[in-house]
Prior knowledge:
heterodimer; A: 372 residues; alpha+beta; four-stranded antiparallel β-sheet; B: 293 residues; mainly alpha; two-stranded antiparallel sheet; 13 helices; 2 strands; 77% helix; 1% strand
Amino acid sequence: MLKNRKRNPLNEKSEELYRASEAKLVWIRFKKNKLAVTGMIILIILYITGMFCEFFAPYNPNKLNAAYVYAPPQKIKFIRDGKLVKPYVYGYEMGRDPVTLERIYTEDTEKVYPVKLLVRGDPYKLWGIWESNLHFLGTEGGTFFIFGADRMGRDVLSRIIYGARISTTIGLVGVFISLVVGTILGGISGYYGGAVDFTIQRVIEVIRSIPTIPLWMALAAALPRYMSQIQRYFAITVILSLVGWTDLSRVVRSRFITLKNEDFVIAARLAGARESRVIFKHMLPSLTSHMIVSITLSIPGMILGETGLSFLGLGLQSPTISWGVLLQEAQNIRTVAMHSWLILPALFVIITVLCFNFVGDGLRDAADPYKI
Amino acid sequence: MTTYEVVLRQSGEEVDLARLELLRARYGLDKPVYMRFFMWFGNLFKGDFGYSMLYEKPVRQLLGARLWYTVLISSLATAFAWVVGFLIGVYSGTHQYSIGDYAFTVVGYLGVSIPNFLLALVLMWFVFRYFGLEIGGLFSPEYVNAPWSWGKFLNLLQHLWIPIIVTGTDSMAGLIRVLRGNLLDEINKPYVTAARARGVPEDKIYWKYPLRIAMIPFLSTAGWTIPGIISGAVVTGIVLNLPTVGTLLLDALRAQDMYLAGTIILILSVFTVIGTFVSDILLAWADPRARLE
């Protein structure tokens, strides 16, 4: 049969398919899932934005501006005097409602500020190394609050972009910790079995029977108050991964149990391979795809966890900027009703979590490339 | 305790050492941590949950009704998630790629990715905006302290649906996906085709065999939704300002009131275990194979 296929030029493509590595096969299948690919592209954009947030944010996120307290989002306009022009925004003028003393912002149609790429603005230090004042988007002279401003007149868009750095990475770091712990304990549990397995499984059951959020709340509340921002960030990731590792270790364990009796593992053992070699060289690689899937699917849980904890005031604390911290501002219904743009960070949380779910589902379908 | 002593000293008051010693002994602070843990744990069995420093009341008094509202909301939310998840799952599984299936898939994905507290806020805002109702809490102000009556009950129902939907949606989405996937797997199996070829009526084909098999993963997943639902009930309770243990837990944690916080978490865990146990029994009832093990 093989010979036949070689002679037939029509089958050249399928022959290539037969010789492709596993990773390539997974990639081919993954590409077919448009939703998953879209999700992945959005995630890459989000992470790049978070990485270079100083550059992408139009303003310094901590810059107070009393003249723009609770300024609503500015609209970017494209049409002036009936003609299509380059995007621009109008300047804001603040007045007060004579009765309620509420701030009212009116657009001043005389002041026109074109929106430009790469403008000079607030100075910053990228990653604390390079000094610059170049920003991706902005206006010269005027204001650029397309997502509005918060109660201290800080730009919400800039704060969301800075928040992306913390919020998106907290899931990654947390998952990395759970990955290490989960693989080691799950591996031991599945490979050796017996009393060790029994103990580890009971520990997992105990952890899983405690409702997650109250447990996280309790642990986060027990953190000392004098911790620095960085310390707190890592403490929160550790807390989040404390529950996360149990899922991963279950996956690893069940795979180890099935793999243990596979021919190639027995062959390796009979050939005299050391135990560590059997585990790391032969067994672990064959479950990478499953691990990648469970990792992608457990990141959103951690992002939501951080958001929830910070929202309740137990997670990260300002001046650290994360999406959860930003949402603290939108805690009561009055704020949401009056300054609805303050809830925008939630939109980003939803988009991120949604994309991770799409990518994870896509990967899960693609993970077993030999399945038809 | 040390802080208490320091505060007393700073304020220039006479520190009564004997009194301090007495307090230390009362809370077992002279003993190591593990001893204190066992003291607390042993007292639980006697129905003594300790004393809340924050509210200066025994924990037991504080929990009372709040606990029952939590149980009420959690169990209704669980029922909601299971029943609606089951119905939608069956519908999506039998009507693959229909408009309804796509719509429910979108709703399911959104349910997973919208944090509970946000859904609560948005629903509250929505109702406030379009119906002009303030729906925080479980009762309208005039009913909060009123004795139970038919009116109060109706009022409760009016407020109850939001926390139930908010808490249930999250888990429901996962259940829909599990049931839909398994049902689709089963429906394409040869025995279903064979049954169809023999002229078994269409709805009987679905209800009799494939659904029963597809139910098994559904039931075992359903058990694990309970911790999630209880977690959700806590957060939703805080956001919607319900008289559940959620708000109490948050206050207790903020004030480091450990007797209160510890008891709440312990009780929530006990509920989770009971819930999981019930769902395991359901599983054994539905799947003869699980019964044998």
